[in-house]
Amino acid sequence: MIAVSNTTPLRYLIAIGQDDLLGKLFEKVFVPTGVHEELTDARTPEAVRRRVLSLAAWFEVRAVRQSHEATFPVTLHRGEREAILLAEALRADVLLVDEQIGRTIALSRNLPLSGTLGVLERADRMGFVSDFPQILQRLKASGFFIAHSLEQQLLQRHEARRAK
Does pLDDT of 72 surpass 80? Predict the structure, then answer.
């Protein structure tokens, strides 16, 4: 399986020390140049910048060829736009994106989606996560917003998996 990632999932997975899960879940994670530039920008936390510059072989930066036909119904950030176009060009198995506008556009273009929480839940389902509730707490502490009702659903599904 190959994935294309927007900035947010990578940024938060790195921030909570769980970016290695991407290498376990996917053969390759591609990021467009615009996303790589966001992740290595001076305003990005130092730990994230350092980690992005030393990610393993499963991580690859790709330039995106943008044509005039690639129009979007709303203005997207460069990273989101490039991630959607790269996912289409590579016929990626999944596009990793958290922002609602980007997700809506990607769905309208029939791209399979996941976000940071989807990655963590899939890793938990596959046995790659030792303490899912603690990881959710670290994610929230890093600034990632999780609605209380969604958090409860994730924890209930985790408990149901553990009960089996």
Answer: no
Closest to 31 measured CA to CA, from 83, 66, 80, 71: 83
Per-residue burial over 98-116, b = 16 or more CB atoms within 10 Å of its CB, e = otherwise:
bbeebbebbeeeebebbbb
Contact by Cβ (8 Å): 30, 3: yes
114-125: per-residue pLDDT in tens?
Answer: 999 999 999 999
* Domains of the chain by start residue, with CATH: 2-117 (3.40.50.1010), 130-163 (no CATH)
Q: Is the pLDDT of residue 86 over 80?
A: yes
Confidence of residue 74 (pLDDT cuts 50, 70, 90): low
**What does the buried/exposed string (b/e) look like for 41-71 if buried means 16 or more CB atoms within 10 Å of the residue's CB?**
eeebeeebeebbeebeebbebbebeeeeeee
